[in-house]
Design goal:
The protein has 342 residues and is of the alpha+beta class. The protein has 13 helices and eight strands. The protein has a five-stranded antiparallel β-sheet with strand order 4-5-6-7-8. A three-stranded antiparallel β-sheet has the order 1-2-3. Strand 7 (304-309) and strand 8 form a beta hairpin. Helix 7 packs across helix 8. It is globular and about 70 Å long. The relative contact order is 0.07.
C-alpha cells in the first residue's frame, strides 16, 4: 500500500506508479481509495498530484452515482482535493505537477502537451524561465523513474536532449511533434521603427509608457501607438534582451532568491552540452555574476565580477567594472558564447 507519507518522502514523480493503477471500474475504487485514507497519515498534508488523482477519479465515478465517495472519510478527502487544486495557480510549479498527474491517470495528451509547451516556451519573461525550468526538471525526473512516461515522450517525438526553445504561447504546440515548431520571427517592421526612434526608447527607460484611455492608445515619448503596436514593441524588446543576455538556446539566468541583485547564475539546461559542470538543480552551472559586497574603501564595492565554471571543478573570474547586473550578464554571456563557438 502506497500511503501519502511515502509519496511525499520520495521524488516528485513517485506517485506515477500509483496513478497508473487508478481503477477503471467502480468495483476497484474502494480499495484504491484506502491508500489515501487520511486516518493512516493524518498529519501529512495532501500533495497536488494526489489531489489531482482523486479529482480525476471523481470525474470518472461521479459522487452522485457512487456511494463509495459518501463513506467517511472519502468525502472529506475529496473536498480537500478540490480545495487544494482550486487554490493552486495553473501557471506555477505545482501546476506542472497537476498536469503530469492528470496525464498519469487519464492518459490524455492535452496535459502532457501543455507541459511540453512550458518546457520549450521562452518568451523573454522571468515567469516563463522559472516555469519552463521547473517543467524540465519534472519531466527529466519522470522520464528517469517511469518507463510509461519515457515511452510516451518517445512516441510523441519529444526529447529533452534535443530541446527547441522559442516563443510558444498557449495552444501553439501539439503532440506528437513532427519537428520542433520554429519560433516566430524576432523582427517586425513596427518594432524596428520604434527601436530606431530614440525619444521613444528614452521615454521607456526614463518615465515609461502611459496608457491613454481617451484614445485607446499607448503614449511613448510623445508617440501614440496602437495597443497591438505596443505589444509588438514589448515582445521585440524582450527578444532583443534575451539575445543579449543568453549565449545560446537552452540557457537561462536564475537569480538568487534571497537577494536577486547580489548574484545570478547562468544555467545550461542541456545536460549533454554541459556535462561535467556543477549541478545546481534543474540544470548545470555555466557561469554567474556576483556583486562585490561592501568591505571598506574598496573601489569595486557594488560592482559585479563574472565567474566562468569549467569541467574540472574549477572556475575563473574577471572584473566587469560595472554596477549594472544586466551589463555584467551580457559580458558573461559573450564569453560563454565565444567558448561555445571554439
Amino acid at each position: 500500500m502506497l500511503s501519502e507519507s511515502v509519496i511525499l518522502s520520495r521524488m516528485r514523480t513517485h506517485y506515477l506508479e500509483t496513478a497508473h493503477t487508478a481503477p477503471t471500474s467502480a468495483e476497484g475504487l474502494a480499495p484504491f481509495l484506502i491508500q489515501f485514507d487520511p486516518s493512516h497519515v493524518p498529519h501529512v498534508p495532501m500533495s497536488q498530484p494526489v489531489a489531482e488523482i482523486l479529482l480525476c477519479l471523481e470525474a470518472r465515478f461521479p459522487l452522485a452515482d457512487n456511494p463509495i465517495w459518501k463513506e467517511s472519510p472519502n468525502i472529506d478527502l475529496l473536498r480537500q482535493a478540490e480545495m487544494l487544486v482550486k487554490k493552486t495557480p495553473p501557471e506555477s510549479p505545482a501546476g506542472n505537477d497537476i498536469l503530469l498527474a492528470h496525464w498519469a491517470v487519464t492518459g490524455d495528451l492535452p496535459s502532457l502537451t501543455e507541459l511540453v509547451r512550458r518546457v520549450m516556451n521562452r518568451d523573454g519573461s522571468s515567469a516563463a524561465d522559472s516555469l519552463g525550468s521547473d517543467a524540465i526538471s519534472l519531466l527529466s525526473d519522470a522520464e528517469a523513474t517511469d518507463p510509461y512516461f519515457a515511452m510516451e515522450l518517445a512516441d510523441c517525438n519529444f526529447s529533452l536532449g534535443r530541446l527547441k526553445f522559442g516563443n510558444f504561447p498557449p495552444g501553439s504546440v501539439s503532440l506528437p511533434l513532427v519537428s520542433a515548431p520554429p519560433p516566430p520571427s524576432p523582427r517586425a517592421q513596427p518594432v524596428a521603427r520604434a527601436l530606431r526612434d530614440l525619444p521613444v526608447v528614452q521615454s521607456a527607460v526614463n518615465g515609461g509608457p502611459a496608457a491613454n484611455r481617451d484614445s485607446g492608445t499607448v503614449d511613448v515619448g510623445g508617440v501614440k501607438m496602437s495597443i497591438s503596436a505596443a505589444v509588438k514593441l514589448s515582445d521585440g524588446l524582450a527578444r532583443a534582451v534575451t539575445e543579449l543576455l543568453r549565449p545560446a538556446e537552452g540557457f537561462t539566468w536564475l537569480n538568487d532568491s534571497a537577494d536577486p541583485q547580489a548574484r545570478s547564475i547562468l544555467v545550461d539546461l542541456d545536460g549533454k552540452r554541459g556535462e561535467g559542470l556543477p549541478d545546481v538543480g534543474g540544470g548545470l552551472c555555466q557561469a554567474e555574476v556576483i556583486q562585490v559586497a561592501a568591505r571598506g574603501p574598496d573601489p569595486n564595492t557594488g560592482k559585479y565580477i563574472g565567474r566562468l565554471y569549467n569541467r574540472q571543478n574549477g572556475y575563473s573570474e574577471f572584473k566587469t567594472d560595472s554596477d549594472d547586473m544586466n551589463t555584467a550578464k551580457f559580458m558573461v554571456a559573450e564569453r560563454v558564447r565565444a567558448d561555445l563557438q571554439t
